[in-house]
Amino acid sequence: MNAAQIRELFPILNQEINGHPLVYLDSAASSQKPVSVIEAVKQYYEHDNANVHRGVHTLGSRATDAYEGARAKVAKFLNAERSEQIIFTRGTTTSLNLVASSYGRAVCREGDEIVITPMEHHSNLIPWQQVAKATGATLKYIPLQEDGTIDLSDAERTITDRTKIVAMTYVSNVLGVVNPIKQIGEIAHRRGAVMVVDGAQSTPHMKIDVQDLNCDFYAFSAHKLCGPTGIGVLYGKKDLLDRMEPIEFGGEMIDHVDLYESTWKELPYKFEGGTPLIAGAVGLGAAIDFLQEIGMDEIDRHEKRLTAYALDRLSQIEGLTIYGPREERAGLITFNLSDIHPHDVATVLDSQGIAIRAGHHCCQPLMRWLKASATARASFYLYNTEDDVDRLASALIQTKEFFGDAIG
Ligand code: 7TS
Q1: For residue 389, which of 8, 55, 203, 310 is within the disulfide window of CB 3.0 to 4.6 Å?
Q2: pLDDT at 408
Q3: 334: closest CA among 367, 285, 304?
Q4: Last residue of some domain: 270, 293, 316?
Q5: Where residue 398 sits, what CATH number does that domain have?
Q6: Is 171 part of a structural domain of the chain?
């Protein structure tokens, strides 16, 4: 299937925005959903809906099977050893907060270190700041090289025997950098630290094998990989998850409750208090089926081709600054156009039916490192085509001319 055919499977893309066919270049913020995912959620609500893990009635067991079936699909998708290592959360943010609040606060003491990078999304930065503040641990940053990449020798220097946790994004949502997380995980393990991976921007686009990466925790959101909003995953190594305390308490997660003491269910349920997002899990399962049918390697290849084409087209536009490395990058391009504010760029593009993101992308420290108050970003997915890139490039040229004339 080529990208133009894949595009047909996404009903939302078949519309005009401000009188122009929609070009959606904001999938790094949230991807669009194919018919099969929309139908799976609809089918669940029309035929199988009930609460999970409690009823003896037929709908209750169908809902439980659907929910647990989705967990098994995720486990296979990540190549996790067992389904119980897959904890359903609200998304990457909740997954990372769970690791920080449960594992981080339990293991860190004064004098210990938590190591992250300046390119982290706020979701993988603030939770660690909070752990550092609460425990007296020191938050340290592996410095970035000029092009935004990480040099392993800097990781070797920053991660020490006092480091308890290394937390890092696999793919930067601003720079498009693909971090060497396997190698950094090896350094972390040599020093006795655990490796936490923010997989929000990697999981939708490339094959992930948590056993090969040998990471201790891995987080992602369904909505960036063709699934519904409001659901995501935390994968963890079983011995670590077994030792961790829940951070939310209530129904579904208990084994035995007394007036003054309670005990918890086994994995993964001790981390899933309350009625979960069952339909969301069903949608995530359908999204995984959809992506795997096309093939993660094929998606990866398509995005690399498209990004190379886009880099070529955009770098010909005078006055356009592209951030991040030229080689070895993921399917997104962050840029600024002359001194036009990125919000103005995004607004002009929207008037032509082209959706991009502008702002700090939840990466304020990285914006300061880039010496930019904000940037514009075009991000690609399996449904984007060269035609989309051509529309973006010509709209940017027009935007520049428009503002040039206005200023001049
Ligand atoms: N980590 C990274 C690297 C991200 O890009 C994002 C979302 C998150 C964590 C948080 O994911 P959530 O699903 O819990 O919100 N990134 C973006 C973005 O780049 N534009 O909008 C959201």
Answers
A1: 310
A2: 46
A3: 367
A4: 293
A5: 3.90.1150.10
A6: yes
**Ligand 1, atom 17, residue with closest C-alpha:** 29
CA 92 to ligand 1: nearest atom: 14
Of 249, 275, 293, the domain-final residue: 293
Residues belonging to the chain: 408
Spell out, as residue ranges, where the chain has pLDDT lower than 70: 405-408
How confident is the model over 346-381, as pLDDT tens digits? 999 999 999 999 999 999 999 999 999 999 999 999
* 3-state SS assignment for residue 121: coil
Residues 143 and 280 reside in one and the same domain: yes
Instruction: Identify whether the C-beta of residue 197 lies closer than 8 Å to the C-beta of residue 206.
Output: no
Which pLDDT belongs to residue 407?
53
**In terms of domains, do 19 and 151 share one?**
no
Q: Let me know whether 207 and 240 are in one domain.
A: yes
CATH label of the domain that carries residue 97: 3.40.640.10
Taking CB atoms and a 6 Å cutoff, what residues make up the pocket around ligand 1?
A: 28-29, 91-93, 121, 123-124, 169, 173, 198, 200-201, 221, 357, 361-362
Mark whether 226 is an active-site residue: no
State pTM to two decimals: 0.98
**Angstrom distance (rounded) from CA 203 to CA 151:** 23
Q: 360 and 265 share a domain?
A: no
Question: Going by CA atoms, what residue is nearest to atom 18 of ligand 1?
Answer: 29
Three state DSSP letters for 58-73: HHHHHHHHHHHHHHHH
Omega within 30 of 0 (cis) for the link into 268: yes
Q: Provide the 10 A C-beta neighbour count for residue 373.
A: 13
> Which atom belonging to ligand 1 lies closest to the Cα atom of 357?
20
